[in-house]
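[09:14] KT: can someone run the structure on this one? pasting the chain below
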Amino acid sequence: MNNTKRTILMPVWEGGGNVPPVLAAARKLLAAGHSVRILSDACNGPEVLATGAAFTAWTHAPSRPDKSAASDFLRDYEAPDPAEGLGRVIDRIMCGPAHAYATDTLQAIEEVRPDLVLTNELLMGPMVAAEAARLPFALYCPNISLAPMVGVPPLGPGLQPAKNVEEEALHAQIAAGNAALFNRGLPALNAARAKFGLPALGHVYEQWEKAEAVLLATARAFDFTPPVLPPGFSYVGPQFHDEASDKSWVSPWMQADARPLILVSFSTTAQGQAPALQRVIDAASGLPLRLLVTLGPALAGQDFVVPDNVRLVQRAPHRIVMRDAVAVVCHGGHGTVMRGLAQKRPLLVMPMGRDQNDNAARVAYHGAGLVADPARATKEEIATCLMRLIDEPGFAAAASRLGQNIGAEAMASPLIPLIEKICADLDSSPAAA
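[09:31] RB: done, structure tokens below
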């Protein structure tokens, strides 16, 4: 282990599943003797402080006071189509408020004097701030890569690897469309750069290319990994954060209840998931199984019609519940998918946007579960999927094989050595001298 103590500044926005991997990384950095300060929305302060890391809330940038649906300013699920949904992310998180995020990050840099800014890859503002302060930054990605990689299907529609020339052409066309869509944020990004005395970029992707490294907190075994990674890219395995309160969990069922248990967990952020969740609940009615549904802050206060074999809870420790479950129903958020597969549980994925179609495509590719349309799947179709996951052993076998590899990658994660190496390499670079 590198004995040099480093100070790491970690900016992240409240996007639900993107926060726990940051908390996990902070715990590991602190355990290795480093200092960590996390910049994030005010609502994340208590969780950050519980890790032992220091915390600063955004003041100029958007900062949610809580995790309720009412405080969600992204509301990408209200967009008329997936492209506009991504457009809202670009306008409201990635590039639109880049100057505000950069202002807050630069203030934190002046206070903390970090050795490295390790930022969420969607936040262009902290990258601008680091560049303006002549400070190195790296991207910490709690998901599959948002930056395009040669040989990997483009993000969005949930494509599997191309099998012929026609599919390769389609992938190229979609990739070009993605590049144009991301560049919708270029004027705002360049305006922020200009305010900090930085030259204009020709494409939003160029801001990513200035990073010292791109650390993909996903599993190589799960991803459509290209034969050769782009320079600076590394897989560091999924990063799991478990809360101390997990030990207090008590199941709502009697221990003698032998019916198969299925965990249902949709996004902790608002994605308009209530109608789909009600159909999943309806699908379970009369089936020989138990359904445990975690609502999370996005669905707090909403009413659902619940049959006798379904229980609703505000939250539950997924790590513990999944040990007793035979399958997981989820929206395809990266964190839930990784957790379910690491516990070797097959999935029913009902993707609702963002990177979820692409995570679902990987689950299906590996044979580790099924995919259903959250808007169109009927309760009868969902019921069939639930019983298939229970009755057809191939899904559990595939999830077990994949999960074993995912778990091994998580246990042997090179995250901390890579961060230490980035810092050490910068110390010895000609620029540092």
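[09:33] KT: thanks! The domain at 7-239+413-427 is CATH 3.40.50.2000 (Rossmann fold).
[09:34] RB: yep, looked fine to me
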